[in-house]
Amino acid sequence: MPRRPLIAGNWKMYKTISEATSFVEEIIPDCPKGVEVAIAPPFTALYAVSERIKGSLLKLAAQDVFWEDEGAYTGEISPIMLKDIGCDYVIIGHSERRSYFFEDNEAVKKKVSAAIRVGLVPILCVGERVEQRKGGKTFEVVKEQMLSALNGISFTDKVVIAYEPVWAIGTGLTATPEQAQEVHGYLRQLLREEFGKEFSESVRILYGGSVKPENISGLMEKEDIDGALVGGASLKASTFLKIVNYGRI
Ligand code: PGA
């Protein structure tokens, strides 16, 4: 079975409710059928976007989640709350969470399990920093990040992996399709060794890091690149539409 491409827009800390709802109204009519499209608005706009996309093919993602279902955790949002609001996906372990909010692999693992427990599909982010790439540590870093986070899940669980080299996020520097494919192929091989062929072939591995209309097609041509996690270029509807319609440009 070929994997259905997934393009997810990660809005980070951008957009008010009205900006978010007008964006989705603009893109819904022009989203292609063959590509799954997801939007990750900030928490404050999730409900309004969820209401607006009902009946459309657009999917909803949150940008983070806590691992407990409820409790005295001021400021946190639980997996059950995200499910309740209509989320399908949740981004976990984004490099900005790891670096600014000190999330380690242990926290990421707990979040992944918690998301799966309630039926949310985690979009697990992994990726090396520039000095790690220069030091020849890329494979080691992404292996540790991915396998520690997936430790304990079952081969019947649904997950999405996003390979996002930290040096490419928001910098305008994209990994070349060859550089990305090398890591994607490696991650898929690891998934195969750990969880079996069927699982490894069903998991979508997205690329993230300065994806734009100009570079999406080249990336999507690669065997193990199944979509993209798009930050900056997902904020403008016309630009994001070009990316999701990459097959037509
Ligand atoms: P970028 O961000 O597309 O702005 O590089 C990607 C991401 O952080 O997921």
Written description of the protein model:
This protein has 249 residues and is an alpha/beta fold. It has one domain: Aldolase class I (TIM Barrel, Alpha-Beta Barrel), CATH 3.20.20.70. The chain is built from 11 helices and 8 strands. The chain has helices spanning 17-27, 43-52, 79-85, 95-100, 105-118, 130-134, 138-150, 177-195, 197-202, 216-220, 237-244; strands at 6-10, 36-40, 59-62, 89-92, 121-126, 160-163, 204-208, 227-230. The chain has an 8-stranded parallel barrel, surrounded by 5 helices. Helix 1 links the parallel strand 1 and strand 2 (36-40). Helix 1 (17-27) packs parallel to helix 2 (43-52) and helix 5 packs across helix 7 (138-150). The longest helix has 19 residues, at 177-195. It is globular and about 45 Å long. The two termini are 25 Å apart. The model has no long low-confidence stretch (mean pLDDT 96). The structure holds 2-phosphoglycolic acid (PGA).
Helix-strand blueprint:
Layout: E1 6-10, H1 17-27, E2 36-40, H2 43-52, E3 59-62, H3 79-85, E4 89-92, H4 95-100, H5 105-118, E5 121-126, H6 130-134, H7 138-150, E6 160-163, H8 177-195, H9 197-202, E7 204-208, H10 216-220, E8 227-230, H11 237-244
Parallel strand pairs: 1-2, 1-8, 2-3, 3-4, 4-5, 5-6, 6-7, 7-8
Helix pairs in contact: 1-2, 1-11, 5-7, 7-8
Bound molecules: 2-phosphoglycolic acid.
2-phosphoglycolic acid is lined by residues 10, 164, 169-170, 208-211, 229-233.
